[in-house]
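Re: that backbone. Tokens:
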């Protein structure tokens, strides 16, 4: 028997809020269509690859007084990629909508991610089973995985499993890569006249799956509030002890939205934004100099402590590091089967082999790094064949280089203070937290809305719920064609269609707030202590969303 915490007992009772358009029920909906859409980039290539699903319109739902009978439908659902708070509520919303439309409908959950639909591993959901997971964090209801759905063989096996279960639609809950796979599967199902629909749901705590119609991906709200609480706790400790510089690496490989949002919530002394570093063509030396300068200035004011927030992917955005890592990724594919490298007697021998294979400039960069970082750069690659940046302790690299710089300044009499450091990495701490009220409502609405898209016969769409800074009853439900978000990118040496990542916009309203305040935050103790996520109490505390979403929505409304 499961032991439930008092909070979980109360959260199981929470009834998520729905947009008014959906709250009347699935069978009382009407759909309106907008104009035909185009891919965000590389339109001709995307159109050629998605001949059957390209150019579909954005759709919006509204309530209707006329009831529309819903035929019996069996639906399959997949959790794909890394965990994000609220995933269970997407499934709960999907299940409730499905049963609301027709009690004879069935929902199957494929186990362990996309591999479940290929291997035919599944469960059928029941009221009792679903009720155990409402408003909880994690993906443990059916598990997740990172298997890609992109080959003819995988599509054929998926079709066989769906036909065995009489499934007429599949919902894929995932990030940009997972929804790219959803688009490929949808196209294949239409091309082969299978009659099976595919709908996606936007998930990723990185916050980089968004556009004008997808205002935020789910999980971002909860994760950033969780990280902000932790940073706030550390800031209070730093301000109490007044003797440590805390270097906090925070999740977000390709985009710095998480670091930026956490910084706006807590106001640390230093916040590095990867996209800014790349845009300014800052070298590793310049990054270290910028951070060192702030540390020295604070020390001159008698403050030998502070907080630095560093995005997980920073190291890949520093130009010379990016070049070196790209070169390293290329040669590692060969080195992993090279016996001289595999059988090297020491790690230093491996370093020498790598440096001989790298281009001269890249070899020089690699050789300059601490042994710890050089070793981490040779670790197992990710599914794309790239270095796993989450395993590179960038915060420790910066600490070591800053310490060397400060020792040099001390020897010259320029730096007279003290520098003691602590390092942290916040990643897994935020992925499975109890979803905030916002994420609980948003995710439930996304799942409920996903079935509305299915019920209207659509495929190749991403569930969209907009107007998110308003109360939930004013949210707008609809769908966005997945091909609208796609472009061509180089993967494993060849160009492939993928959903374009939304990076931090340096001329956007969110970054501008950081830019305006960073000098004051650097030298003064402007720390904010957000505290824990609140689930009960006034809406002004419990239902607030992120500053990122608020600022972007305000800006978009001004520019309408």
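Recovered sequence:
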């Amino acid at each position: 028997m499961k032991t439930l915490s008092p909070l979980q007992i109360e959260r199981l009772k929470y009834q998520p809020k729905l947009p008014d358009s959906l709250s009347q029920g699935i069978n009382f909906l009407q759909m309106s269509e907008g104009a035909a859409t185009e891919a965000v980039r590389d339109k001709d290539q995307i159109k050629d690859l998605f001949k059957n699903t390209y150019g579909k319109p954005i759709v919006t739902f509204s309530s209707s007084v006329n009831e529309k009978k819903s035929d019996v439908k069996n639906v399959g659902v997949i959790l794909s990629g890394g965990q994000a708070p609220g995933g269970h509520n997407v499934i709960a919303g999907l299940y409730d909508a499905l049963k609301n439309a027709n009690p004879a409908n069935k929902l199957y959950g494929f186990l362990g991610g996309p591999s479940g639909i290929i291997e035919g591993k599944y469960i059928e959901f029941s009221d009792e089973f679903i009720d155990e997971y409402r408003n909880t964090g994690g993906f443990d209801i059916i598990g997740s995985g990172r298997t890609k759905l992109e080959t003819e063989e995988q599509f054929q096996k998926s079709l066989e499993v769906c036909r065995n279960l009489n499934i007429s639609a599949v919902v894929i809950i995932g990030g940009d890569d997972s929804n790219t796979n959803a688009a490929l599967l949808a196209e294949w199902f239409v091309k082969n006249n299978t009659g099976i629909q595919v709908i996606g749901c936007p998930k990723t705590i990185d916050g980089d799956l968004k556009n004008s119609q997808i205002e935020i991906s789910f999980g971002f709200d909860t994760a950033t509030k969780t990280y902000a609480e932790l940073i706030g706790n550390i800031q209070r400790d730093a301000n109490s002890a007044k003797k440590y510089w805390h270097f906090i690496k925070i999740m977000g490989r390709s985009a710095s939205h998480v670091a930026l949002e956490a910084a706006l919530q807590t106001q640390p002394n230093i916040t590095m934004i990867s996209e800014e570093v790349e845009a300014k063509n800052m070298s590793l030396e310049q990054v270290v100099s910028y951070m060192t300068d702030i540390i020295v200035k604070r020390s001159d004011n008698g403050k030998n402590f502070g907080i630095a927030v560093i995005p997980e992917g920073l190291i890949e955005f520093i130009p010379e590091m990016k070049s070196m890592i790209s070169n390293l990724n290329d040669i590692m594919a060969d080195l992993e089967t090279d016996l001289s490298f595999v059988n090297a007697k020491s790690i230093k021998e491996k370093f020498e082999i790598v440096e001989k294979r790298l281009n001269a400039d890249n070899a020089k960069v690699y050789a300059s790094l601490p042994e710890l970082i050089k070793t981490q750069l040779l670790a197992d690659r990710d599914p794309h064949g790239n270095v796993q940046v989450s395993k590179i302790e960038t915060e420790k690299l910066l600490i070591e280089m800053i310490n060397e710089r400060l020792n040099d300044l001390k020897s010259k009499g320029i730096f007279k203070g003290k520098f003691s450091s602590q390092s942290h990495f916040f990643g897994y701490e935020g992925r499975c937290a109890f979803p905030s009220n916002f994420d609980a409502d948003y995710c439930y609405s996304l799942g409920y809305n996903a079935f509305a898209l299915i019920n209207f016969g659509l495929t190749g769409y991403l569930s969209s719920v907009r107007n998110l800074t308003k109360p939930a009853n004013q949210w707008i439900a609809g769908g966005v064609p997945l091909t609208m978000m796609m472009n061509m990118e180089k993967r494993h040496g060849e160009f492939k269609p993928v959903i374009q990542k939304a990076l931090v916009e340096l001329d956007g309203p969110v970054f501008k707030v950081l830019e305006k305040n960073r000098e004051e935050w650097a030298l003064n103790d402007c720390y904010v202590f957000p505290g824990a996520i609140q689930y009960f109490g006034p809406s002004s505390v419990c239902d607030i969303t992120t500053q990122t979403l608020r600022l972007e929505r305000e800006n978009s409304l001004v520019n309408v």
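The two ends are 54 Å apart (CA to CA). Residues 318-392 form a domain with the Arc Repressor Mutant, subunit A fold (CATH 1.10.10.480).
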